[in-house]
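name: query_chain
kind: protein
chains: 1
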Amino acid sequence: MRDYITIIGGGLAGTEAAYQIAKSGIRVKLYEMKPIKFSPAHSNENLAEIVCSNSFKSNLLTNACGLLKEELRRLDSLLIKIADQTSVPAGQALAVDRDIFSKNVTNIIEENENIEVIHEEVTDIEKIAREGIVIIATGPLTSENLAKNIQKLTSQDKLYFYDAAAPIINKDSINFDIAFYGDRYNQEKKKEESIAEWKKRLEQEKEEQSYINLPLNQEEYEKFVQALIQAEVVTLHNFEKREIFEGCMPIEIMAKRGMDTLRFGPLKPVGFDDPRTGKRPYAVVQLRQDDKQATMYNMVGFQTNLKYGEQKRVFSMIPGLENAEFIKYGVMHRNTYINSTELLDETYNLKSNSNIYFAGQITGVEGYVESISSGMVAGLNAVQDFKKQGETHESHKICFSEYTVIGSLAKYISTPNMKFQPMNANFGILPELEGKKIKDKKERYKKIAERSLKTI
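structure:
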């Protein structure tokens, strides 16, 4: 057996696993194919590159992803620690400067004396697994050659769904005669203020505001939706499977579901008044800060597969974006995941080969924090396997309680399910509280969070 553990993939899950393993004193060989080869959505050479939104979602303990982050903090997650250190204003959410975040992760991993980073594409997993423990953390953008090898290894014919990223806009190109700062969670303060007082306060606080809002009236909204529905999209190849994960539904697909779908989804105006009128707009497009300097903002909920020219044309119809400079256009890309419910156990270990672990979105956990969680669990258990080499019992496995979000995600992806689909952290996959049901949702979630952190 090798005197090190192999990790394939230097994304969020792979780097978290590498850190957890190296921390125990065990050597790691971390394979990352960049910059020798890039996936269609990756663009820089650093590890832990953030491809889609820069948001790690809510920090509130009454939000399942917020609770998951706190669990990971208490377990010394490297990536959550760096996310906290590189955060940008985002209201109650944790959002990061994606460039600084990935650079910091890369520096720490490369400087660790127990980790060797090898820039090379791996295509034969079984050969590696015959000689030692391997964690496959190649993410939703696994290379075609490796995906075929995984398909053969797992005897599965379904490995794909589609995901989409939103455009990023230069803040200086936004028309602030129309746009205004603020997030809906702070709008209650406005109720006791006059419009003039509110405008003055927003102006004073705008440097600290993480969201820019673009109000639309009914006529503007309906014209935009019609243009969105009729816009040209990038044509997928015939061999590609056209399955789209609901959590990252392209905005043009949502628009086709009905004229009001967007207005009750990512463009909902709840919690906002237009400073120009003092009244609630018909719809609101939100832009979220994407970098530390607050020079770039991404379009919240605007994942898309529109052609680049069409994105410029249609999104410029939004009031305030008539002269928008698009730093990065939205892109739709193939995601890869295995049927984990049949293949993996609660430690992300392959049932048919104990030397092989999977981690990250390839397992069917959906989201940045969820991927980090799976990387931690796989890494910790790979350490246990490494230390127990030659023994046959499995009592050393670290299985997290289903009362934690970490454990409930692991249980979800390892429990047989005929309609298995990638899953975000949510309270629906945790066990209900014992005793009398608490009707108030926030209070119920608070109690679930208390139970989780006590268990951790």
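note: The longest helix spans residues 368-387.
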